[in-house]
Amino acid sequence: MAKTNEEQDEKAAPANTTAAKNCFVIMPLSEPDGYAKGHFRRVYEDILVPACHLAGFAAVRADDVKQSNLIHLDIVQKLLDAPMCLCDLSSRNPNVLFELALRQAFDKPVALVQEIGTQPIFDIAPFRYVEYHKDRIYNEVLVDQKAISTVIRDTFREANSGSGVNSIVRLLALTKSATIPDITPPEASADYLKLIMNEITQLRREVRSKPGSLTGSGTASSHRNPVVGKWLHFVNGQQQLIEFLDSGFIAPYERGAVWELRGTHLMLMWSSPDAPDGTWIDNCELSEDGTTYAGTNQVGATIQGKRIP
Questions:
Q1: What's the rounded Cα separation, in Å, for the pair 13 and 275?
Q2: What is the C-alpha separation between 82 and 66, in angstroms, rounded?
Q3: Burial readout 26-63 (b: 16 or more C-beta within 10 A, e: otherwise)
């Protein structure tokens, strides 16, 4: 019977992914120590995107989301709205775990994959998952694509039937999943946005500070973010000295300003009564050598940065 269902699903998979349902892919966007540059982008393009297509879905990754200046909110919206999600647990990445936790909290279907040889971040024995080959040899890639497409289809089908194996809500017999409350206009203010950003940043800081947590060598410092340190920050040519802290805050403003790096996209958020909706949002691109950044804020002001050696 399982084989018959799989064959039917393959026939039903759309030939044009633009008409397919989205499958949001949670995975590392940059490479930690031990991985060649661009490794996870190639895993995405060579294995995960074709696997989603075989399963009847169009793959979407976080760095594909560029709908507005509020990158974080766009990503969360895509993450929660997507009918299906695929999560790559390779490399023990804190961002991956955070996005997976959000997806699970709302009891949305998610299929789990990881690179062969990956040490489990947590006990995944109760969950269905599939492993793929790191070296992407042609025949192995084809096998991995088919195996991952199968787990995507099975997870989606079982979630819709109410018997999802990968649902923490169902495994723990919780009465209900998380829900997003209706937000009235006063709540959709700068204070509400700042609260969300501070909560996210605080969670990231706590995860990073735990000894032996989410790192290969046993300390969070071994995966220090490349932008951490002192910078000259320019707004329309006006200069100020700032420091990107490992906690995600920006000194000397501390909790009034936060930063986030995704790939080469650097976003800075500054709480200010003079800013639109109470928050300046700088969207910048980090240079390849990591010594400068450039971009604009939501009113078009020129933003630049230069690392201080």
A1: 47
A2: 16
A3: bbbbbebeebeeebbbebbebbbbbbbbbbbbbbbbbb
Fold of 2-171: Rossmann fold (3.40.50)
Cis peptide before 252 (omega within 30 of 0): yes
Question: Of the ranges 60-74, 180-194, 237-251, 265-279, which one carries the lowest mean pLDDT score?
Answer: 180-194
Q: State the pairing for strand pair 249-251/129-132.
A: unpaired
Torsion of CA 72, 92, 29, 157, to 10 degrees: -80
Instruction: Tell me the pTM.
Output: 0.54
CA gap 197, 73 in Å, rounded: 10
Fold classification of 190-307 (topology level): Lipocalin (2.40.128)
Residue 115 contacts residue 165 (beta carbons within 8 Å):
no
Write out the residue limits of the CATH 2.40.128.10 domain(s) in the chain: 190-307
pLDDT in tens, 41-84: 999 999 999 999 999 999 999 877 654 444 466 678 888 889 99
pLDDT, tens digit (0-9, with 9 covering 90-100), for 134-167: 888 889 999 999 999 999 999 899 888 876 655 5
Amino acid at 280: W
Please name which of 240, 286, 221, 289 lies closest in space to residue 259, comparing C-alpha atoms.
286
Tokens of 18: 């633009």
Is the separation of the CB atoms in 112 and 167 below 8 Å?
no
Strand duo 292-297 + 279-286: pairing: antiparallel
Whether the CA torsion 199, 204, 208, 212 is positive or negative: it is: positive
